[in-house]
Amino acid sequence: MTTLAKPAMRPARPEFSSGPCAKRPGWSLQNLQSAVLGRSHRSKIGKARLKDAIDRTREVLGVPADYLIGIMPASDTGAVEMAMWSMLGPKPIQIVAFESFGKDWVTDVTKQLKLPDVEVLDAPYGQLPDVSKVRPDADLIFTWNGTTSGVKVANADFISADREGIVICDATSAVFAQDLQWDKLDAVTFSWQKVMGGEAAHGMLILSPRAVARLESYTPPWPMPKIFRMTKAKKEGGNSVALDIFEGATINTPSMLCVEDYIDALKWAASLGGLGALKRRADANLGALETWVAKTAWVEFLAEDKSIRSNTSVCLKVVDPRVTGLTSDGQADFAKKLAAALEKEGVALDAGGYRDAPPGLRLWCGATVETADVEAVTPWLDWAFEAVVSELQPA
Fold first, then answer.
1. Are strands 313-318 and 361-364 parallel, antiparallel or unpaired?
2. How far is CA 345 from CA 55, 279, 348, 377, in A?
3. Tens-digit pLDDT profile for residues 60-101
4. Is CATH 3.40.640.10 correct for 29-269?
5. Which CATH architecture has domain 274-392?
6. N or C: at which end does the chain have fewer Cβ atoms within 10 angstroms?
7. pLDDT digits (tens, 9 = 90+) for 123-138
């Protein structure tokens, strides 16, 4: 075992999970006393709190006034699948997949919906596919920021302003930390549990006028589960979007305690100065890790290209020859021991890489994390590496 001394400083908050993420600084259950508990979410006061969450989301993110915002069941996954099951079918489909969740959307489209005209643009973890191949005549599904790969798109310039298809964007680890180009996006999804540190099980779906037009002009040929239905049949024929869903009348019963928690996070964001302040905090956190990686020989970013490197879900890979020379199983075991050593010391919780990603570490650096804690954890990363790698050396 290494004789390297343990660092003197410890992160004040060791929560580096990529979902659910760290609560906002200063969070307390006492902040949720306005929660509407023991009342129907369809009561006047319940719907008012849901509408407040929607309105504050629009304000902090700068969502255009003519876009609809709704609270959906089943987190980001539910919101993405609602969009896919409701809107895909009339046009060819392209899916940009460069991490595990993007690959899940490929499975949904090809094996569940079984749509025929599907092109997958994929890339290994740490890289971005060739987005210049995105076609304006096809519907597009893509992840703005890969939570499990640490890779983001630099911008949405690859999406044509004159597109014929709709764009479904899984933005769950990008919102509140990166600039989304709303005019290029038609169905945007995220969950409360990611960047803002909210509780799980609730997702958001933001629809452009083009997405609304698709919903009202197209009826999918497959049976639509009740939980996915966003339209109502008109007496004169055709469909109309159920606007009440986007005014706080959720499809299923939400947790009003979780709603209050999300509102609390949005209030905190607004108190800092809104989206710009949140982005600066995330950038500062990434910057702290970049400073450390630049002087540390055993580690590199999984996303080597800085222009596509995430400032929220930051993924690290071990490049020391003593580890890279191991078998794939050996490398995976090393990464697990590295994360376990950090957890045992209580300095970096849930810092292991995603199960489908290359072995390594993943540290959440969104705005709810303090830069001082990122700086404080880096000596512990070095300590843990030396502790685990020493076990590989002969006595």
1. antiparallel
2. 41, 30, 8, 11
3. 999 999 999 999 999 999 999 999 999 999 999 999 999 999
4. yes
5. Alpha-Beta Complex (3.90)
6. C
7. 999 999 999 999 999 9
